[in-house]
Amino acid sequence: MHFTSEQRLDDGVLEREFTLGEIPGILWTPPSATAPAPLILIGPPPLGLRKMYPRLAGRARYYAAEYGFAAATIELPGSGDRPRWAAVEQARADLRRAMEAGEPVGDEIVDALVLPLVEKAAPEWRATLDVLLALPGLGGPVGYEGGVISIGIRLALAEPRIAAANLFAGSFVPATMFEEARRVTIPLQVLLQWDDEGNDRQAALDLFDAFGSKEKTLHANSGGHTGVPRFELDAGARFFARHLK
Amino acid sequence: MHFTSEQRLDDGVLEREFTLGEIPGILWTPPSATAPAPLILIGPPPLGLRKMYPRLAGRARYYAAEYGFAAATIELPGSGDRPRWAAVEQARADLRRAMEAGEPVGDEIVDALVLPLVEKAAPEWRATLDVLLALPGLGGPVGYEGGVISIGIRLALAEPRIAAANLFAGSFVPATMFEEARRVTIPLQVLLQWDDEGNDRQAALDLFDAFGSKEKTLHANSGGHTGVPRFELDAGARFFARHLK
């Protein structure tokens, strides 16, 4: 891991960009910490790190400044400045075409779009975790949150260091990921935008129902895809504060 | 209104029992207040004030001690120490019989059970509000929370002093109350136990969908009817704190 920039922000949070091999990422750490800080992995930005920076940094800095958590994110394979990935580009184009034509999005498009991403991204997040947890001031319990819910499901199931996950409901979840969801047992909070134009509400409710976790909470809010209420930021932080001790 | 008892509790909260005509009730006020305290109406205890006292007082004292809210509740017509009400007793018996026989609960049973209660209870709550808001230290904005969701719907729609409502999803909502729900516009939080044995999950989701409020949030938690997680108490208080300024 190489830190490529370092900046102390006006809320006291330290923001460092890094690369891990070819993967760019950002780490935010709290102004001061007496014990190892809990670490929130802020799940893959599907539109790329640069484009989603304001949203990612807004969440991360709130967690760090208000709750003393560290937070980190890395670029998805094939996104942002990382090399194009032909198979996923093709699947994205197929998805776009189907949606623009108003056709139902077939399982084969969803599988082709999501499964390779999960297979490649999940090990990258786990390797990043190895490195992050060895840094001074880190090493506390780990939470995961964010989009591309299938990657969240895989990590919640396969990465035992993740103690709790705050997932954003999304459509386009392959059937095999429903099967994995049934085997997830860590505490979950799931955020659903009730009137999300691009999201099948019933599929999201079915996925919430499928999760095997004994403690799971759904927060459904009126409004469209980008209308997540501001108060959910604090609700997410409080969820992690309960579980990352 | 006559106060029939007064007790300063160990958290500093003042608990006063009162009667308003034939209706018994309880008022909890915060240890100290500089401005008029917001008032939370803690919705009708369907099993009676005495039986549900620990749960009611637990919520009210938390609101008063932690958030500086006042809180009050009154006995439902036909419940607790109030005179029996033959029509409602009959409807309750019909409901019990249908459920024990594993039969579907018909609309006529639901209507007979709920509609007379709504018609009689809602004006009582409004009259209680008149008296409470005239007390010294009260007079702030009003929130409503609690069970018998049809009474909550009626009050959310008909009582303009109620600025926000935190409702507990329940089955047995008459079709006419769905129509009223569509006309509700105040901010809502709705609590649903995902695995509630006595509650039709789809009906609860349909009701949440029906509410006309621009700001509405559903908190669905895994677990049965009595398994509402402890953290929802604070989530309710924070909802009111956002809206009762």
Provide a concise account of the structure shown:
With 245 residues, chain A is of the alpha/beta class. Chain A is built from seven helices and nine strands, in the order E-E-E-E-H-E-H-H-E-H-E-H-E-H-E-H.
Describe the structure.
- Chains A, B: It comes from Streptomyces luteosporeus.
- Chains A, B: This is Alpha/beta hydrolase.
- Two copies of one chain form a homodimer.
- With about 240 residues, the first copy, chain A, is an alpha/beta fold.
- Helix content of chain A is about 40%, strand content about 20%.
- Chain A is built from seven helices and nine strands; from the N terminus they run ββββαβααβαβαβαβα.
- Chain A has helices at about 50-65, 85-100, 105-135, 150-160, 175-180, 200-210, 230-245; strands at about 1-10, 15-20, 25-30, 40, 70-75, 140-145, 160-170, 190-195, 215-220.
- A nine-stranded mixed β-sheet of chain A has the order 1-2-3-5-4-6-7-8-9, with helices on both faces.
- The longest helix of chain A has 27 residues, at about 105-135.
- Strand 9 (about 215-220) of chain A pairs antiparallel with strand 9 of chain B.
